[in-house]
Amino acid sequence: MRAIQVMCRKIPDVMPREEMKWPLIRGRGVGSRPLEALISDPATPVVGVLGTGDFSRSLSGRLVASGYQVVVGSRSPKRSRALFPEEAEVTSQKEAASQAGVVFVALFPEHYSTLAGLRQVLAGKVLVDVSNAVQFNLCRTSHAEQLADMFPESHVVKGFNTVSAWALQTGPRDGNRQVMLCGDSAEAKAVVGGLCCALGFAPVDTGLLAAQALDLENLPLRLFPSWRVPVLSTLGLFVVFYLYNFLRDVLHPFVALGRAPAFYKLPVETVNATLPAVALVTLASVYAPGSLAAGLQLSRGTKYARFPSWLDRWMGRRKQLGLCSFACAAIHAVYSLCLPMRRSARYKMLNDAFKQVKEGVADSWQEDEVWRMELYLSTGIMALCLLSLLAIASLPSVADALNWREFTFVQSGLGLAALTMATLHTLLFGWDRAFDPGQYRLCLPPTFMVALALPLAVLCSRLALSLPCLAAPLARIRRGWERSRHLRFSLPVEEGGAVGNGRSLEDISNV
Fold first, then answer.
1. Of these four, 135, 137, 408, 443, which has the most CB atoms within 10 Å of its CB?
2. How far is Cα 488 from Cα 371, in angstroms, rounded to an integer?
């Protein structure tokens, strides 16, 4: 607790009276304060920055605005002086290193060798390495470890490499407020952590240099790491279903019936027929791993055995898969609203009206088709609304306002309701088309039948898990019962015979 308090102290608003007599830039030399003094006074008056790049300029401006005295070390002080705030002093690298207790090394790693002559000057100082990797696994040793080998008498801390120069200029935001730190000296990390708090950031201690520095340097190279697999799988499903619809709706009339190829369908109709299939399968993939996990727990008779790694990764990406499903469903809704606006739709409507007049049909009303379309649209709207609620509940600001029980209800209860509505929406679209031989073009079943395979399997598995013969053993397992230990175990029974406060059946989906 005391270490946390040290990391989160702020710079005092008023400088103590005895410190007002000190010069703006203090020399280190014999009178320099050791590392212990810096820890006791985390509001370090002088901070050094080695380097004159974009990050150095942004960091210097942020430090000055936060009340620090900044001295910048440059190989060309005269040329670089105009790039920095007037309150920051730009001098040589040796002079800057000698005056500051905390020194940011804002140089490219290939230029670290130019600091070899500063080993004695930097002895006992806290060095903050802000460099990043150029590509994954280019070096087996991190840049911070290389810097620590060059300056064994210094205390190297890896940090601020995940913060952009723009964030330093504009101030921290929710998306980049955290600053990951790692180092071998707890005291040095406490000093840098206090500096982070003073700048408005939140320090996060991730461990030692050897264990975490390389991962931190590779972290900025990862572009939405948790989204890569969900987005690629969604795009893969889109390509598969798009080609499937192309074969059935565009290529089949040309090959089997000798009609002109209807390539005009590709930009809108084929895309609109593909999106709901992708949305449905992706939404089903959100709840499929929960059923698989429940099945594994039932077969093993315990909850203490680890799931396979692929299942763990799948379950960890369910939020991203759900948002991808919502995106496809929302785009499908927009495409559907635009369908009547196309020229091809207008021509087809006019042709149908002309044929009806020519055939002398006064009333083309079909009761079953009217009901099918009404129910089809209603279930589609309900599914999209439920998906919208799931997407809103996934926002950090909303999720933080929900307790565990509420979040589980939204993501599990409403999620399964959305999957049920989307499945009904697809079934109503198919209506009796599954029994029409003309729908099996090129010996391929309709697209909606292919898309329904996984959702129906998931819903059936959830229905099976809600049966008492499976729900009761699964509830016992999740409360710690193990089949191999042969323990007598019973769920808590309340008045009226309710088992587990009526929660055993509901908790089945919360894997």
1. 408
2. 54
